[in-house]
């Protein structure tokens, strides 16, 4: 199988959450036994990953990687034979490995061919000085390319690139892992490490949205959202369910819900994409499946319990048969689905026998940001990816005037850029916030997820924001202000589109 052939996303177990970089032979053997006895192997979990901590301190005289015999007195072969699976080890495309021990053990830089003969590869980046550097790098394709070639030379046609979502400084501008890894890897980490908290789930999902929207994730080149935190008590039960459902529908690996596993392992290999965000309330996603069914996910961002409804007309669907992937409840010929969900909970549906409606396709009038009223530091800049090759950034306040519309409430289209990539451990969300108001009325907070890595090119087009307070037949205004609690700055704005 070559890197270009289609494949399903991986299901497996990684022991990092259990013991960080301090594994031991008995603990791993017990985990292998538990995976089998608890039904995970039968459910399709074929991969077993030791992660860090397996290496000894130095290589042997002939360059062979040494095993940490204090942790693995019988070596790794016995465990590999026990697992009887495509086990993964973990090393780094650097002089040292990403390991919590001090000093960290060796990495694979310069030893790719030797190491490729030993294992399948989860390839992280350490430069020998910094553990997991976060600044843009110019050598990603060459470093990872060496290991990719060595693995293929040894009959291994799969590699996970773990570059923590760090941009590659290419000759044409910054690129995320989704853009530069296709020739080299079958999976790529889309973000920095996950942590055991809800905001980390939000941060990674906000980073995944633009990848899925732009079609940068497909069979044979899957985005990896890092480990599941399901079972770790920092997340509520509802947060764990939402985390699980999001990861399943985005196509990384998941646990034992057979219906969600079927979504995750669907042969089409397409992830869900964001339909619309109602900021601080809920996100609505959908995605196609191989047999023509559709997966629909409502992810509740708000912090209260309440009834939420999915109106299928929002998906250009008149009616469908519905299977609730959590409760198992079904309904035929439904035009909507409602459920009571707790804070950070979700609705996960598989719909079939779909009757498609014809989209209304209303006429939108577009208003360019550079023609709006700028104040409090907002400034026009020339950027090639925007309409008219201009945008407005550093937004203090941006006010669009003379807006004509026939509707009091409307889904307004925002074309914007947010390339402010953020990383773990500092309480960030990978979204930029703005206060938006119509005709100087009550403002609402809008959270704009990452649009990509390049401030010049990566425009999110037609991001829908539901706004009310318009006066049909009159001249209206839309005001956008930065400086919300979520971020100091709003995203850069190209233009807005309003139904005529």
Write a short abstract of this structure.
The chain is α+β, with helices and mostly antiparallel strands and 500 residues long.
Q: What would you note in describing this structure?
A:
- It comes from Tilletiaria anomala (strain ATCC 24038 / CBS 436.72 / UBC 951).
- Residues 280-351 form the Alpha galactosidase C-terminal domain.
- Keywords: Disulfide bond, Glycosidase, Hydrolase, Signal.
- The protein is 17% helix and 31% strand.
- The chain has 500 residues and is an alpha+beta fold.
- It has 3 domains: 12-189, TIM Barrel, CATH 3.20.20; 234-359, Golgi alpha-mannosidase II (Immunoglobulin-like, Sandwich); 364-499, Galactose-binding domain-like (Jelly Rolls), CATH 2.60.120.260.
- The strands form 8 sheets. It has a 6-stranded antiparallel beta sheet.
- Strand 24 and strand 25 form a beta hairpin.
- It is globular, with a radius of gyration of 24 Å.
